[in-house]
Specification:
- The protein is an all-beta fold and 122 residues long.
- Helices cover 0% and strands 47% of the residues.
- It is built from no helices and eleven strands.
- β4 (31-36) and β5 form a beta hairpin.
- The radius of gyration is 13 Å and the shape is globular.
- It starts with a strand and ends with a strand.
Length: 122
């Protein structure tokens, strides 16, 4: 069983930046970030393959968010720039122990973190 621990959430003004981190307790393959706003379904944000050479993004964050990973530290990051109030949500880290290519569906992942709150004020 792999444990995922997120950090880096907080309150920021619109146009600002935050960097989320997610440390895994063991080796994983593809990793990603989802988010869930109040009253909404959990949605895909970004995902990256094991080697870090292939990344997918939701259209709503493309060009503003960047996902990266450091396999030596078993850690994945989400750099979020030009934040908007609609980015406010709980952000969840996720990991697969079988998929080499990143997925965009929740059922493509095996492990989930506890979530970290990101709040963007207008």
């Amino acid at each position: 069983q792999v444990q995922l621990v997120e950090s880096g959430g907080g309150l920021v003004q619109a146009g600002g930046s935050l960097k989320l981190s997610c440390a895994a307790s063991g080796r994983t393959f593809s990793m990603g970030w989802f988010r869930q706003a109040p009253g909404k379904e959990r949605e895909f944000v970004a995902a990256i393959d094991w080697g870090g050479g292939s990344a997918y993004y939701a259209n709503s964050v493309k060009g503003r968010f960047t996902i990266s990973r450091d396999n030596a530290k078993n850690t994945v990051y989400l750099q979020m720039n030009s934040l908007k109030p609609e980015d406010t949500a709980v952000y969840y880290c996720t990991a697969s122990q079988t998929r080499l290519r990143p997925g965009v569906r929740r059922d493509e992942y095996d492990y989930w973190g506890q979530g970290t709150q990101v709040t963007v004020s207008s």
